[in-house]
Amino acid sequence: QVRLVESGGGLVQPGGSLRLSCAASGSSFVINSMAWYRQAPGKQRDFVARISSGGSTDYADSVKGRFTISRDNAKNTVYLQMNSLKSDDTAVYFCTANLLIFESRNLYNSWGQGTQVTVSS
Question: Cα(4)–Cα(25) distance, rounded to whole angstroms?
């Protein structure tokens, strides 16, 4: 199995910045796309940003111009740089990866446990 672990969440003031990380580990695998989602209390889980194997990116309109997604393939890690944070950005942030397990040739989507981001004065 492949495990995804998020880190970097915490409490920041409005206008501040945070950088989230998500590292994949476990069996031999290849990562296709990676993405970030977020879920506020009582709300649905929403798409935030995605990065393809080739490095192309997509962003939700609500974060465009403020957030940047990137990846380090050598470290099997995806990052989310969050700037100009607003109270509406408060949520649990989840990373996900589309994976190929090498020995079984099995494709599936793996999810992390999430990391809390709170934007408050």
Answer: 7
Quick one: which H or E segment has residue 22?
A: strand 18-26
**Are 11 and 89 contacting, i.e. CB atoms less than 8 angstroms apart?**
no
pLDDT in tens, 54-70: 999 999 999 999 999 99
Count the Cβ atoms, other than its own, within 10 Å of residue 84: 13
**Beta strands 57-59; 46-51: pairing state:** antiparallel
pLDDT tens-digit map of 10-53: 999 999 999 999 999 988 899 999 999 999 999 999 999 999 99
Q: Dump strand ranges (E) for 1-121.
A: 2-7, 10-12, 18-26, 29-39, 46-51, 57-59, 67-72, 77-82, 91-101, 106-111, 115-119
Asked if 10 and 65 touch (Cβ cutoff 8 Å), the reply is: no
Length of the chain (residues): 121
Which two three-digit tokens encode residue 15?
């206008």
